[in-house]
Amino acid sequence: MRLNLATKVLIILVFGFQLNAQNDSISQNKKNSKVPFLFDDERQYFGAISIAYQNPMSYGDNFIGEGFEGKGGYNFKFQIYVFKNFFVGFSYGFSNFNNINTELLGNYTESTVEEISGVIGYEFIPLPKVRLGVNTSIFGNATLTNSIQSGYGNRDFGKLRNFGVTLEYEFVRNLNILLEYNWRKIKTDIRVPNELKSFFEEGTYNTLNVGLKFNFGSAAFTEKLSF
């Protein structure tokens, strides 16, 4: 009787250990096969700083699309990850253009667009070491400085809207190669006759940015608050 009871207990223990080992194996396999598209603890950061060269490309039936030709610029961006890969930040940059239609726009040779805005966005992780992000501007402003060869010029102002898509590759720890496409629109307050108002009330252009992004920290802002 005692032998049978001991045998039964031994069988139950062996079965229990075996079941637990199988569960651990299944959990490990799930962990290994997980595709962290939305979030990955091992690749969480607190913030990031990026700097990029940008190539502006004008388009559309408006004063920028018809009169400007892009010739380069730069962009600087600082961002904090608030929760997981959702971030807020600040963007500053400028795009340089040549005036290729002086009869339409006036007697100045070039224009520089200064771009300042807040930024919100999210970054996805489709592949190891690869990040795919989307972002949009908030409270954006643009200043257009028009100048001629002698240095004299004037300024125009407007509200900036931006939507961007980024692709990054981490080639060394915390340092990414950055490729970004931006769609930009400026709603201006340029004073012109009424018949030209629709042509000058907004300008549109795209930018293609190539640069570097440095990530720092290992926990999002809300996670630090919970410590």
Molecular structure report:
The protein is an alpha+beta fold. The longest helix has 32 residues, at 2-33. It has an eight-stranded antiparallel beta barrel with strand order 1-2-3-4-5-6-7-8. Strand 5 and strand 6 (153-172) form a beta hairpin. The protein is 22% helix and 56% strand.
Task: Note the total helix count.
Answer: 5
Taken in chain order, the helices and strands follow as HEHEEHEEEEHEH
SS strand fraction = over 45%
Radius of gyration: 27 Å
- Lateral arrangement of strands in the main beta sheet: 1-2-3-4-5-6-7-8
Distance between the termini: 56 Å
Q: What is the strand tally?
A: 8
Oligomeric assembly: single chain
- For the report, how would you describe the main beta sheet? 8 strands, antiparallel, barrel
How does the helix and strand content classify structurally? alpha+beta
Show unreliable segments: 13-33
- Mean pLDDT comes to 84
Give the overall form: elongated
Approximately how much helix is present in the residues? 10-25%
Protein name: Outer membrane protein beta-barrel domain-containing protein
Signal peptide: 1-21
Keywords: Signal
